UniProtKB/TrEMBL annotation:
One of its GO terms (molecular function) is glycosyltransferase activity. InterPro entries: Glyco_trans_1 (IPR001296), Glycosyltransferase_grp1 (IPR050194). This is Glycosyl transferase family 1 domain-containing protein. PANTHER family: SULFOQUINOVOSYL TRANSFERASE SQD2. Transmembrane segments: none annotated.
């Protein structure tokens, strides 16, 4: 017989299969912030004694957790799709291959967690007998995706997780989304109290992120802007280079977490200027973790993260003059407050607690 006390007090171990984004290997940066969220969550769950396997495109790197690498062609990035863009799968699709693998091994797991923002995993959900949780990493993009996600949300109401309330509000099923936020291994981020005379911009270089607004603001205040991140839209990047030949910016490149935090921590502020409803904005909490205040447009995830006038400034969206005013007041922000906020809200423990509670509910463990 099971020892009653231990089964009563100990948290049961779950067997979890995490299915990654199919737009590129984990660690490449092509997938954006969901890569970091998945990696952090996989490590935290495994640290808590759960058995975690990650399934990702060939070349994926997942420290300390087993990763089943799957070959095949990556999905196109869909950030710039129109509402009526059709559903597309390449020949020998890695997404299809990942879900073929999942179908074969589903009997070995208590729960599968889908991190792909794509049509296929939602369509396949009713055909699996292993329960599937879906963590949605973007706001609404196409009607076809909304329709299939809504179908799953209605049939399996507890299974849809999102980063933020503002992201949930972009979907027709917003009232049944589980808001889970994000979190970081804070021990990797060093606090810096004495920044250099630089501003920072961090993220995928793509039109929805509106890097040009940050360059424009940096030009007006004449403070150099350091740009960190993957160029995922080369044409957009070349247009920026042509349009701002003399602006005070430096493209630094794409870095791993350790290198990124070191360079970011030395900046006066992070500028976040997304044109779309940013689902979360992992870069905001990474900056806070280093003690770097965040100046962001007041919409989407950053508006739920930044504490206005305390850990940064929230300004009218798409308004460069307001960005400039905020930059000019940045010394009013105490950098210690930024680190404190990251510690209070975005630790790995906080992330793990939120997701673990959700997972237990889904497998009906009280
Ligand atoms: N990033 C990185 N190295 C860099 C620049 C960015 O690893 O040099 C990562 C960053 O840590 C973050 C992600 O890129 O996890 C961007 O995610 P965010 O949630 O801000 O936006 P998304 O790309 O998901 O829209």
């Amino acid at each position: 017989m099971e020892p009653l006390l231990s089964s009563f007090f100990e948290s049961p171990m779950l067997k979890l299969l995490f299915l990654s984004t199919p737009v590129g290997p984990l660690g490449s940066g092509i997938g954006g912030g969901v890569e970091l969220t998945l990696l952090n969550l996989a490590q935290e769950m495994s640290q808590r004694g759960h058995q975690v396997t990650v399934v990702g495109p060939k070349g994926s790197k997942v420290p300390n957790v087993f990763c089943q690498e799957i070959s095949g062609n990556w999905q196109e990035m869909i950030q710039n799709n129109h509402r009526d863009t059709p559903i597309l799968l390449p020949e020998n699709s890695v997404l299809g291959n990942m879900w073929d693998y999942a179908r074969k091994v589903q009997g070995d797991y208590d729960l599968m967690v889908n991190f792909a923002f794509d049509w296929l995993p939602f369509y396949l959900t009713p055909f699996f007998y292993c329960p599937i949780a879906h963590f949605i990493s973007m706001g609404s993009i196409t009607d076809a995706f909304d329709e299939i996600m809504n179908r799953v949300a209605v049939k399996y109401p507890k299974t849809i997780g999102v980063y933020t309330h503002s992201q949930a509000e972009t979907f027709p099923f917003n009232n049944i989304c589980r808001v889970l936020g994000s979190g970081l291994n804070l021990s990797l981020y060093n606090y810096c109290d004495t920044p250099d005379h630089y501003l920072a911009w961090v993220g995928r270089i793509a039109p929805e992120k509106a890097l040009e607004d940050a360059i424009e603001a940096a030009t007006r205040v004449n403070i150099p802007l350091k740009i960190f991140g993957k160029v995922t839209d080369e044409e957009y990047w070349q247009t920026i280079r042509q349009n701002y030949p003399d602006a005070p910016y430096q493209y630094e490149g794409f870095f791993n977490t350790i290198e990124l935090q070191e360079k970011l921590s030395q900046c006066k502020a992070l500028l976040m200027t997304p044109r779309w409803v940013e689902a979360f904005g992992n870069v905001a909490i990474e900056a806070l973790a280093c003690g770097v205040p965040v100046i962001a447009y007041q919409r989407g995830g950053p508006a739920e993260i930044v504490q206005d006038k305390k850990t940064g400034f929230l300004v009218e969206p798409d308004n460069i003059s307001e960005l400039v005013d905020a930059i000019n007041q940045i010394d009013q922000i105490e950098r210690k407050q930024c680190r404190h906020q990251a510690e209070a809200d975005y630790s790995l423990k906080a992330l793990g607690d939120r997701f673990e509670r959700w997972f237990y509910e889904l497998v009906e463990i009280p």
